[in-house]
Structure formats: C-alpha cells, structure tokens
Write a structure and sequence with these properties.
homodimer; mainly alpha; elongated; DNA-binding
DNA sequence: ATTTATTTTGAATGATTTTGTCAAAAGTAC
DNA sequence: GTACTTTTGACAAAATCATTCAAAATAAAT
C-alpha cells in the first residue's frame, strides 16, 4: 500500500544505487527523481515504465501504484473522498458493460 | 450514476431554460456551459457550487458527481482502472486512520 | 419554407500547470 | 576536513487547459 515514491526509493536503496544512476537510465535530472521519490513531483507514464524495467518489477504493479497516487492526490482534501472513489468505481463498471 | 454534464443538462431542460440563462448566472460564456454539459470540458469547483445553488440541489451530490467524473477520466483508458480505484480507496482509508 | 432562437464547433488567445535544468545548500560517510 | 549524495529553489521551456468570439449547425415557431 505504499506510494510509488516509497516503493522505488526502497528498490533503489536495497541495491545501494545513487539517484544519479537511476536518473540517467530514465534520462532525467537526478533532482526530479529525488522529488518523485519523495512524492513532490509526479512521474509520467514513460518514467514509470522505465522504472519497472530498471528494477525488474511488474510494470502493471508500478502503474497501478502510480495512478492510484494521482487519484488519491486529486481527492485528498475532500471530505467526500471515499464516496467519490466509490462512485467513480461504479461509473467505471457501468462504462465497461456499456461499451459494446 | 450520471455524469455531472448529463445531470445539469437534464435539470436545465426540465426547467426549459436556454444555456444563456444558466451561463449568465455562472458568469461564463454559454459555449463553455455547452461543453461542460456534454463532457467536453471540465467544470471547476466554483461553477459546480453555483450550479447547485442555481438548481437548488445538494451541493455535495454535485461535487461528488463532478469529482468522480474527473477520476473516471483519469483512468479511463487503463485496463487497470478498477484495480487502481480500489487501491486508491485503500490508500485513502489508510491515510484517514493515520492522520490523527 | 423562412425567420428566430438556441446550441455547437473550432480557431485564436491567454493563463496556468507541468516538466525540466542548473547550481548552490544541506546532509552523509569516510 | 574531503568526497559523494541528496535536497532545494529559482528559472525557463513546453505542454495543457480555460476562455472568448464568431460562424456554422440545429431546432422551434409561425
């Protein structure tokens, strides 16, 4: 249930790699990676995919972690956060059946 | 389970009001309202609140509808959409307990 | 069917947000 | 202390988003 940032920081530290190394692989400045790891910046899809490749973890897992972070952020200061997520879920389910 | 746009279009048509009238109340161009009703543009919070006032419906209901639309949009083309929403839900729940 | 009212579209513009770079400051380990 | 890593914040470029406007399309009324 960790954020993407926490997840990749742990992966990186377990391998004892500096930000520099991972950032180079992603082709971004290490400052950005630092911010991503601490949840100060959002990664983009390409970066998430490359991170999965780099750390050899399931791409889908990382994508879900990343996307759900974005959703949580979007409803963060709403007291209707939970309700909103539940309604969104129903809408997605409904769209699924509807589409063809 | 309707989108915000569908909801307010119905409200407006039931009262047989032109876009112009509602748009004037919101202090926006009618073109924008037209787009909002058809889901081509996102409303902002202030507009949603004014819409609730105008149509005399529960502000919270409209806000949830609006916010959930945004979430659905964000995960729309993901095949992990549902999973993502569920994970987001867990994260929100977790944050709730954590935050004192 | 012509006129009138309403709605939709899209191009242009402006504002805001996002994304990134860089260099200096802060922190860690030796 | 020095060397290395991480964090910070100012700044610029790019991308996204909101808005306006006028014209085109649609619908309604007579």
């Amino acid at each position: 249930m960790n954020s993407l940032g926490e997840t990749i920081r742990k992966l990186r530290e377990d391998k004892e790699l500096p930000l520099r190394t991972v950032a180079a692989f992603l082709d971004i400045d290490q400052a950005i990676l630092s911010k991503i790891e601490r949840g100060q910046r959002n990664a983009n899809r390409k970066q998430v995919i490359k991170l999965a490749e780099f750390f050899k973890v399931k791409e889908t897992d990382l994508l879900i972690s990343w996307l759900s972070d974005k959703l949580v952020y979007e409803v963060a200061d709403e007291d209707v956060a939970l309700k909103t997520l539940q309604v969104a879920e129903e809408k997605v389910k409904y769209n699924k059946t509807k589409r063809k």
